[in-house]
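Quick question: who can interpret this fold?

. . .
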Amino acid sequence: MQTRRNFLQAAVSLAAGEAPDPAYRLWYDKPAPDWNEALPIGNGRLGAMIFGGVGEEHLQLNDDTLTSSAAGADDLPLDVTKRFDEVEKLLRGREYAEAAKIISKNWTGRSWPCYQPLGDLHIAVAGAAEPNDYVRELDLRRAVAAV
């Protein structure tokens, strides 16, 4: 019920025109030039990166079922005991790169999938003019993004 109440509180505050709390607001004065500067939104399953275009908005979409792993890759047998003492010795000896190689090759490997993009959504805004006062923002408290 907490999620529903937070959604309703956000909807009411939007309707009332309440200003976002500056402590929970990310804002920028131009559109994001690349993915690293876009604003993230999502619910844990579906997500998007908002670039903040005026004449054309760009959203890069993501779904948590789209990963780089192969079927059954998460079920790979994992036995860290075989080289645990060796890795521990390397770490205590501050030989981090050598320990990382063993860990990556034998313990993680393909069992750590990476998210893959679902697709790009471009929304053309008819009649959009260059703005006089551009703001791209994400209100973390209300979970609302705006341009």
Q: What stands out?
A: The mean pLDDT is 83.
